[in-house]
Specification:
This protein has one domain (about 5-170). About 0% of the residues lie in helices and about 40% in strands. The chain contains no helices and 20 strands. A nine-stranded mixed β-sheet has the order 2-1-5-7-9-11-13-15-16, with no helix packed on it. Strands 3-4-6-8-10-12-14-17-18 form a nine-stranded mixed β-sheet, with no helix packed on it. It has a two-stranded antiparallel sheet with strand order 19-20. A hairpin with a 7-residue loop joins strand 17 and strand 18.
């Protein structure tokens, strides 16, 4: 596989990171990295802070603060604060405060304070509400909907029928 990892403009010593070819997982505790994985899809990244990612589609990121992401579609981001995202559609973001998103449609956000999204398909800027999960509307439709967290169901005491026999559910 063809990728590069640099730190402060120099190739990072391979002993400072792990690349699992089978799971396509890159992990390190190093900071200040530039990771170029443009031709590799469906990767997982676990890094320190202040990193820049250039990747293909379907990637998952678990990072520290102040990272920059340049990705294709279908990515998931779990980051700290102060990040910049340039992505395509169908991405999920769970971030800290002060983030900027330049995205397509069908993206889901749960952020801290002072985050905005620039949506290319409707040519608009949306302020993302703090500590609320929202999802952008479909392609070419402005706005968003709130995503409600599912309420836990209780089933103790309910009657269920299995193959014609009735059972009362009791939690052990």
């Amino acid at each position: 596989m063809n990728y590069s990892v640099t730190q402060n403009g120099k190739p990072l010593d391979p002993s400072k990171y792990n690349w699992d070819e089978n799971t396509k997982t890159f992990s390190t505790k190093e900071n200040n990295l530039v990771l170029d994985f443009l031709c590799i899809l469906n990767c997982t990244f676990k890094t320190g802070f202040n990193c820049t990612f250039n990747t293909g589609s379907g990637c998952t990121f678990n990072t520290g603060l102040n990272c920059t992401f340049n990705t294709d579609s279908d990515c998931t981001f779990n980051t700290g604060s102060g990040c910049t995202f340039n992505t395509d559609y169908n991405c999920t973001f769970n971030t800290g405060s002060g983030c900027t998103f330049n995205t397509g449609f069908n993206c889901t956000f749960n952020t801290g304070d002072n985050c905005v999204a620039i949506r290319r398909d409707v040519k608009g800027i949306t302020e993302i509400p703090k500590n609320k999960t929202i999802k952008f509307n479909r392609y070419d439709v402005t706005g968003y909907t709130f995503v409600e967290e599912p309420k836990p169901e209780t089933c103790e005491g309910k009657i269920v029928e299995i193959e014609g026999k009735k059972y009362k559910l009791v939690l052990a």
